[in-house]
Amino acid sequence: MTERKAPRRTTGRKLNRRDFLKLGGAGLAGAALLGTAGCGGGGSGSGDLIFAMGTDTSGTLQNLIDKFNKQSKGFKVQFREMPTDTGQYFDKIRTQFQAGGGDIDVIGADVIWPAQFAANGWIADVSDKFPESERQKFLDAPVQSLIYEDKIYGVPWFTDAGLLYYRQDLLEKAGYSEPPKTWTELQEMAEKVKQDQGIKNGFVFQGDQYEGGVCNGLEYIWTNGGDVLDPNDPNAIVIDSPEAADGLAIEHSMLQEGVAPQSVSTYTETETDPAFLNGDAVFARNWPYMYALAGTEDYPDVKPEQIGIAPLPVAEGQGESASALGGWNMLINAASDRQEEAWQFVQFMTSEESQRIRTLEATLLPTRTSLYSDQEIRETVPVVALGEVALKNARPRPVSPYYSDMSLEMQEQFNASLKGEISPEEAVGTLQESLTEIVQAGS
Amino acid sequence: MTSATGQKKRRGGWIKEEFGNAERRTAYYMILPALLIILAIAFFPIMYSVLLSVTSSTITGFGSFVGAENYIEMFQNEDFWEGLKNTLIFTVVSVTIEFIIGLGIALAINRAFRGRGLVRAAVLVPWAFPTVISAVMWRLMFQDQIGVINEVANGIGLISEPILSDTTLLLLGAIFVDVWKTTPFMALLLLAGLQTIPGDIYEAARVDGANVMQRFFRITMPMLKGTILVALLFRTLDAYRVYDLFWVMSGQQLESLSTFVFKSVRVSQLLFAQGNAASVFIFVTAFLIALIFIKVFGMQTGTEE
Questions:
Q1: Domain that holds residue A313
Q2: Has residue B304 been placed in a domain?
Q3: Which of A148, A295, B13, B86 is the most exposed place for a label (fewest CB within 10 A)?
Q4: pTM for this prediction
Q5: Does the CA dihedral B30-B34-B35-B36 come out positive or negative?
């Protein structure tokens, strides 16, 4: 190299090539964060039909697939395991779609995904295969979560909804024969039981800055008559209303009045389970799964018979309870060249018989209404009977192709309002603005 | 004209000199694969990000050219400022504390004493933990139901609210955990530097009557300067791109520049281009930090004298 001949400088250093390379090396530290481009081809070829879903610890999923493979003609289904963490699963599927479709034919998808996929044309419109007459056999909210711009993009598989768990034994001791109907009643009852019987916390729920925090926040808004999107116009944001603000104010009052521990603003389901199941809380808001954990080896203190389940309370003067809808749907990749086979598999998995097996063996809640009157299910999986009303009150979170962005905003504002960093009015005001921007950016 | 042709000639001469010689040609062939890999995995993604950051691209498609719009929006984004503020405080405070404690540890274990090997090994334990694991571990200790630190801090009246629900306490916690975790690394780097200082210099100084403080400031510090700068640069750049500690320990509540980039690029669908602008921002500022170390503090980048 040329500079080899030149006398090496000892003073007055200038940036030479070597320095530049070193700098580049240091800069690579930052570069590790830079985004990368996706590439790859799409479409599935011959071979097995591929079905993706998060880890299934119960093993019933593989059994059902084996059963399908035994009776199917001409093709087999292969299960592709996806991350348990919903966010990571979403990220993975989205990356595949971006790269041109990927090789997955059928997707087990969270209820908040359909609009986000459908808006990009990634999932198949099944409106013709899944007519109104068929949809009526399913719970309404899961069906709604699949509808985007008047078309339906999949079939509901199993469902989830926020429930109010209460300690029946403690309430009875305190002279209450019924669970609270309103949030105020809940606060009074919690306060009384807490003081009389020395329970650490009145009420625990999920207030952390994450998707579950959005579900909780929305429930307070809904049960006070507020909403995020105008029911008649999905592009109109109506969150800046006194109802929504007061709803968030109720959530904040739980923390402020000491009904809920101050740290509830950092709680996810992981913190809720031990708080309630170790006997440290009178009430808890959680998903149906928690019922099955009571009295098990991990949580021997609180037995299932000590627990009652009710729909979430409402604000004073409000009629109907509402819960955030969770659960999973089955979608078909629009880029798959085996739409018919994929549909056969979706039909099989969402059939009454398959859902029945999945409910009995994996305690997942069915989406077919008929199964709620099935005697065996009601006895084996009591949460189906106990939570029936709440499950029927479930409402989907805002259906939007930009739900991820809306969720990020809501997570932040709901959490800040819960902690009291900002007032509920400020929170809904900020959300009105930012959510409107998001909806407009999408149209 | 003449100068242009002259340059051309010289350039031709340069190429001839570099590639005319068979031995040099072989050398180039041998570094070619490495060069190509660097181009493909470092240079291309960086340039692609820069390109994305000046377009209206989304995660699903390449957009049109919008100039500096993404950068302007980024600088108007409160979350970005929150991340920048946290990152700067975290970097400056944690690296400073790590340096002071690390230097102390290095000086201590540089001396010969019984059990030195054991102490050196023990000091490295926190550093050997994967960050995610130590982040989860500390989160549990800070937690209010089972967390020992929260319990003790509450008991002696140090805090009035749970650590994890207060952003300031979380940032302090993150700094504390980082100090706990990476001080050993700092100490080890400094120790390596200390051991290159010949003992006879100290002896000579002692003969000349220099006391401990004089020996430290006149011999140890100047001789250690190169090592200190390298250690500080490493740690500064490392702290500057903090992601896992914040994300996991705070349960995603504490924003840093890197968590901002992650949220924008991987979670959000609308902030994709802005996230790329932020990652370019991190890249450029990290580059500037390195430049400051080299130009302002006179850090040696070559190995030869």
A1: 163-324+399-442
A2: no
A3: B13
A4: 0.82
A5: positive
